[in-house]
Amino acid sequence: MTQQLTPAAAWLRLQEGNDRFVASDVSHPNQDASRRTALVNDQNPFAVIFGCSDSRLAAEIIFDLGLGDVFVVRTAGQVIDDAVLGSLEYSVSVLGVPLIVVLGHDNCGAVTATMNAIDTGVMPIGFLRDLVERITPSVLTARRSGVTEVNATVIEHTRQTSRRLVDSSRVIADAVERGNVAVIGVSYRLDEGKAVLVTGFGAV
């Protein structure tokens, strides 16, 4: 395992792929049989994408990537739990990934459900309640700033989640402090397919 890219170079590569996707000029790299064979015994992804589980947010598609390019972790509303933290720490400490992308998106159902629960005072049942409880601090932070629209709230949630990753994981925080890793928050616009940087920790 070798770290080939700086955090800034990794983000640039993602931007270039997203630009191709937006322009409908995708190259579908690293998706052939030879790439598949080359990855049988090892992997060296250049970024980890921690995004929402939404079906419209497939990381390898929107960044025009292929097999072995990115390590992907997804939960509804990009909610952090112990398994997420363990997966992200693995990507940093074992795989040597230089960039963690927290990927939110417009019209997020989990954020919308949280906003509705706060407005009505009615919490959902089952484990959906756990998602809502974990997103609530972000919604409340947004509202303290006068933000009540869902897409602006998603951006605030992406910012808060990025900060929470660094605050929650000593492994990630130390890597950011050393300059080996950057954590960035990115908001994806469903209508145009554009991924936009909204926050960051470390140099990109």
UniProtKB/TrEMBL annotation:
Its cofactor is Zn(2+). Keywords: Lyase, Metal-binding, Zinc. The keyword Transport does not apply. One of its GO terms (molecular function) is carbonate dehydratase activity. It catalyses: hydrogencarbonate + H(+) = CO2 + H2O. InterPro entries: Carbonic_anhydrase, Carbonic_anhydrase_CS, Carbonic_anhydrase_sf. The keyword Zinc applies. Its EC number is 4.2.1.1. GO terms for biological process: carbon utilization. It is an enzyme of class 4 (lyase). Binds 1 zinc ion per subunit. Belongs to the beta-class carbonic anhydrase family. Catalyzes the reversible hydration of carbon dioxide to form bicarbonate. This is carbonic anhydrase. It comes from Arthrobacter cheniae. The lineage of its organism: Bacteria, Bacillati, Actinomycetota, Actinomycetes, Micrococcales.
